[in-house]
Amino acid sequence: MDLGLSEEQEMLKTSARDFLQKECPKQLVRQLDDSEEGHSPDLWRKMAEQGWMGLVFPEEYGGSGGSFLDLAVLLDEMGYNILPGPFFSAVILGGLPIALTGSEEQKMEFLPRLADGTTLLTLALTEPTAGYDAASVRTEATARNGEYVINGTKLFVPNANVADYLICVARTGKGDQAESSLTLLIIDARSPGVRITPLKTIARDRQCEVVFDNVVVSEKNILGRPNEAWPIVEEVLQKATVAKCAEMVGGAQAVLDMTVNYARERIQFDRPIGSFQAIQHYCADMASDVIGSRFLTYKAAWKTSEGLPAAADVAMAKAWTGEAYERVTLLGHQILGAIGFTMDHDMHLYYRRAKAGQTIFGDADFQRGIVARGQGL
Amino acid sequence: MDLGLSEEQEMLKTSARDFLQKECPKQLVRQLDDSEEGHSPDLWRKMAEQGWMGLVFPEEYGGSGGSFLDLAVLLDEMGYNILPGPFFSAVILGGLPIALTGSEEQKMEFLPRLADGTTLLTLALTEPTAGYDAASVRTEATARNGEYVINGTKLFVPNANVADYLICVARTGKGDQAESSLTLLIIDARSPGVRITPLKTIARDRQCEVVFDNVVVSEKNILGRPNEAWPIVEEVLQKATVAKCAEMVGGAQAVLDMTVNYARERIQFDRPIGSFQAIQHYCADMASDVIGSRFLTYKAAWKTSEGLPAAADVAMAKAWTGEAYERVTLLGHQILGAIGFTMDHDMHLYYRRAKAGQTIFGDADFQRGIVARGQGL
Amino acid sequence: MDFRFSEGEEAFRQQVRQWLKQEIPQRWVELDPGIWEETEESWAIARQFHRKLGEKGWLAPAYPKEYGGLELSHMKRLILAEELAYNRAPVGVEVEITVNWVTPAILLFGTERQKKEYATRIARGDTIFCIGYSEPDAGSDLASVKTRAVEDGDDYVINGQKIWCSYAHLADYCWLAVRTDPDAPKHKGISVFIVDMKTPGITVRPLINILNHHSFNEVFFDDVRVPKENLVGQKNNGWYQVAIALDFERSSIGWAATNQRIIEELADYARETTRNGQPLAKDPLVRNQLAQLAVENEVARMMAYRIAWMYSKGLHPGYESSMSMVFVSELSRRTASIGMRILGHYGELDRGSKWAVLNARLARMSLSALSIGVGGGSNEIQRNIIAVRGLGLPRK
Amino acid sequence: MDFRFSEGEEAFRQQVRQWLKQEIPQRWVELDPGIWEETEESWAIARQFHRKLGEKGWLAPAYPKEYGGLELSHMKRLILAEELAYNRAPVGVEVEITVNWVTPAILLFGTERQKKEYATRIARGDTIFCIGYSEPDAGSDLASVKTRAVEDGDDYVINGQKIWCSYAHLADYCWLAVRTDPDAPKHKGISVFIVDMKTPGITVRPLINILNHHSFNEVFFDDVRVPKENLVGQKNNGWYQVAIALDFERSSIGWAATNQRIIEELADYARETTRNGQPLAKDPLVRNQLAQLAVENEVARMMAYRIAWMYSKGLHPGYESSMSMVFVSELSRRTASIGMRILGHYGELDRGSKWAVLNARLARMSLSALSIGVGGGSNEIQRNIIAVRGLGLPRK
């Protein structure tokens, strides 16, 4: 048993922290949060130079063949620094399905360009039900002379507004089971009939409405095997869930650090507020929440990385981390008081992301449903 | 609006507290808890002299015509002093159905003897499903020549071991609805075929298994109208639920008082522990739980007393008070530490009753189900 | 015991409701601003509405009639506050502050001139105060005030800085606590002044809150001259006066009524929304959560009623107000959190977004609720008060 | 990172499991005593089992081989502790105390004679200590010890009273903290002695716990003569020695494993029990609660693993142990509470009652769990430690 990171991972962690502190100061975070696109091509280029977008992809496709655990370490630091932009959607939601199920040709086409920062992808999965189940997919792709015509509305699609390609989960048949007639299609975001509208969220992430109105793509754009998309989607979702947990762990850690520093320095009633027992106990509970999140998340990430069955572990990590991150930010705000209620302070940036992280890929109740199945319930 | 008790109720409260402190000291509570019967005929006689058993029954049946709210005030004090014995089962579970639906003859037969302390009754409702719904009643009463033959097993019947009569809820037909074929029958506890086994509970209340094995009673023993028992049972349950809340409010108040006194006096690290912020905040939360319980309970009791629809209020009171009483006792134990873990201290007596109170007549989740219906969900 | 309102009180409630139905501007309903969400437009609407309320005598219904009040009973004031909040009338924090903190203190400690001049205008809705208590190094700890006032002829000359002054950029006056005796012990030597915000030397600098609105300000005092007649009460007695004022009827009923409305709207939403092929209202977890919110808000409401009832009995609630505020503030956060969770991804959508539901009120509330129970008079301090004043636990 | 145990460790786990399957007496399974539930019979079984464990070297596997230990790796000790607890082996609190508090302190501070004499016998399962720290006026506050030891020739003469001495009526020795210099500051002037419980002048008076068992005692010392050679470590250095000892590997893995077993049994029960015509396991609220317990216990388990892992890396966990204990103790209470709730009326039934389910373990646990995280080393103090030592928050 080894609960520590490897030397290489520690180096990755340190270099990521240094890079982000330097290249993505909170000032830039705020600027991007407030911008229309929520994406800095300049920062993106620099990240590509760090090799981050290709971290987990094989070397033959321009990646560096890192492990999923390496990616978790990187995401942890991104969460710590609340990096805005499409990294998560491009690499995890966009890149992973291609790496998992793409043809050699597709891999060669997309992965190197993802890795070198020239192409952005995302996954268009959820629809107005806002659920992560197969039955919720109603968008239809109808076969017609070697082409597919796509119609439907996708909702809460991350970073579609800057994506070059959308990987669309569409219904291509009328199987008995909701799961058995879904297909992945790679769609150029500039195709006629694609309409992308960013939604306004409190996390100021870029979730979008994507409408497909008689969008025509070639059958060569099918990713993986027709009607057999769901197991791939499930695998991507599972990985995305633990990846999101890694981000949240970093965020929660940052909130703890920020709060403890404040409590050490802020004087009230002639004492640092961190000397009051109530504040001490809040901080102790925050620390406990953070470490719990860290271990559950890294266990799930490690299992994922090793290719071991991890469904229950991932669900446990998300159930705990999603709620813990919210608790940690709420206590952070409680301890900071009025100063944390100002735009100028960073605390609310974390709080907003905690709320978004709690929801995406299924909230704690949803995850506990998966855990219960794992318990044989 | 008047959130205070009337002068008479204040007097009842004071006299009940004085009486119980004198006649039922904790020493007697422990003795009764440990005894086989859980009942002191001597104390019972004295309570009858106080007019407590007849408090809510009309004067013509030996009662004093008090209101349900008066009863709540009395139960509050009984909970404060954790009075053991069959008062609750005799007066509320046994007496109320007779007062609500009994024939003149039945009222004359049972109520005066209940009021003067010579007869004990209880309600035999729940069965091995342990649920408070009509469908759970499987015990059958089969009509035969002006008699009924009763077969079945009742479980968790309070104080059946000392009851003279059992009011049995039995199935007398095969209606379409579970609710439509239930009948109340008054059964002499010494009838052949009645077998009563007290169960051992951590609250050391006297919940019993009652087996009816071909028990024969006359059809004159039917209470109310045949096959129409369920609305009566529901009314009794609703009243019993708020009555139990009143008991719990008193118990929670006692725990708060006991804990605050201890925190004022116990010195650790050269200070009273009640001066530590953590302990102060625990106590503040306990006080908040107690007052919340008090208001929700008294509101429900007042509505019940006034004959106003109170289903949602009663469910709210029970949902809150059941959980609050447990929280309060848990914090009480936390603050008391080791001393509270000894048999000699009173705290655990309250904790045990809090656990029992939480369960009986449906736990908080069950009550929230009723509240949700009230919300139109 | 009687949990009913009297017939007269019920009639009054109906009267208020009717009036609000007519008088709340449609534009306000569209704007639907939450707490700490003043814009120039919403502020303008609110000021108009204040005057209307003032005309009815409902802006400061507690005041003596001679100072523009109605001397309305405590129970009716409770009802009024409940209806205003439930119906989302354009009454903001600034009125709460002016009406409930400033005037009562003026009436208690002020000169006859001050009472006449300010109380009456406040009751009419003509005058708004901001509060100058907090300083950068004294948030919860008022006794640490450093802003100085020095006598000079007929004036005091004030220098220093205040922070968290809500609506200072819009207020007519500041209710200012300053140090007038720097050599006295911390709690002594503080005085309270009424300062015209147009006085030269006052600079107001905005602090944008996390709802992206300008409610708070830093206020800088640079040789600000205030006539001596604007001293309220006794010189150097300010800490005591402020402590009394903070203790005035802080009505938590508004929060409870706000929650009530939102819990009802969530229930409506759950009834009307289908998820996984069945109404959300049939999901046992959702039912359980909404029911628990309803139960908790009933506790909050009763705690608030209790305060009004105590006043009506001539009792003076102390720790009971603290308890009520602690409970309702934490419940507001829970309501926002659980509400957002029930809405799922839709809960994240901000006001003005396509696909937003319930006018994004839950998302907004999840942010605004972060301001409740923190800072000056934080829930930690309130819990200390409950323990020490309410339960008699030792201070040390 | 690697969350797996090594092959050797897994093999060791299998070995322990096999052995426990053979060696746990059937009678013990029937008795199924929880914590603080020693009876004469269960005590006798436990003492037998201790000797068996001792023979395997598994009673004190951490000790140096020369004192009867196995010098087993930290990870294997973790596994051993986990399997013992999960399989409900007859190992009580008394062993935990003796093995994990007393001997490590003897090995650190004791004379060679003390090490040889006591450590070896403890490792064999021949000797049990009780702890004499708490006094009526010093529960969490060890520095307030008043029991006095005065030098007299070759002996110390001890007078005073101790309380909460678990198993003092059954123990062979007492590990006793007393004041040897009444004039020194509170934290100085305390010394630790090994006292034979058969020494004249010792009176043991039972305190019956709320499980109705005799675990705790008051112990009175009336001119008890203890040879000077029984002083452990330096005179007047006792407070420091005790603080170190309290800091020794306190394994929370036992609690986590105990919870794990119970959560699994609750899940079994939910699968096998029909309520309202469907298996309890289909009730969404029950599913949600059991899943949450499983998640929380996974946190508890990882916190415990972390401690062992840190030791295995040569690190010395401090606040990490506090965190682990706070978390698992509160989780144990939640497990008992939620478990009882899921069982409904059946959950209230005590051991030996007709109709009891899961051997009434939840009801028993709901009582025994009241003892965890309270009193000396309470969760409040542990949270202070986390804040101050772990997070660097200021003490004052």
Could you please describe the fold and organization of this structure?
The complex is a heterotetramer, with 2 copies of chain A (377 residues) and 2 copies of chain C (396 residues). Chain A has 377 residues and is α+β, with helices and mostly antiparallel strands. Helix content of chain A is 51%, strand content 15%. Chain A folds into 3 domains: 7-119, Orthogonal Bundle (Butyryl-Coa Dehydrogenase, subunit A, domain 1), CATH 1.10.540; 122-226, Butyryl-CoA Dehydrogenase, subunit A, domain 2, CATH 2.40.110.10; 231-374, Butyryl-CoA Dehydrogenase, subunit A, domain 3 (Up-down Bundle), CATH 1.20.140. Chain A contains 11 helices and 10 strands. In chain A, strands 1-4-5-8 form a 4-stranded mixed sheet, with helices on one face. Chain A has a 4-stranded antiparallel sheet with strand order 2-3-7-6, with no helix packed on it. A two-stranded antiparallel ribbon of chain A has the order 9-10. Chain A is globular and about 80 Å long. Chain A starts with 6 loop residues before the first helix and ends with a helix. In chain A, 61% of the residues are buried. Chain C is an alpha+beta fold and 396 residues long. Chain C has 3 domains: 7-91, Butyryl-Coa Dehydrogenase, subunit A, domain 1; 131-237, Beta Barrel (Butyryl-CoA Dehydrogenase, subunit A, domain 2), CATH 2.40.110; 250-390, Butyryl-CoA Dehydrogenase, subunit A, domain 3, CATH 1.20.140.10. In chain C, 47% of the residues lie in helices and 15% in strands. Chain C has helices at residues 7-23, 26-31, 40-56, 74-86, 93-109, 112-124, 238-246, 253-272, 284-312, 319-343, 361-368, 379-390, and strands at residues 129-132, 148-152, 155-162, 173-179, 190-196, 202-208, 214-227, 231-232, 274-275, 278-279. Chain C has a 4-stranded mixed sheet, covered by helices on one side. Chain C is globular, with a radius of gyration of 22 Å. At the B-D interface, strand 9, helix 9 and helix 10 of B face helix 10, helix 11 and helix 12 of D.
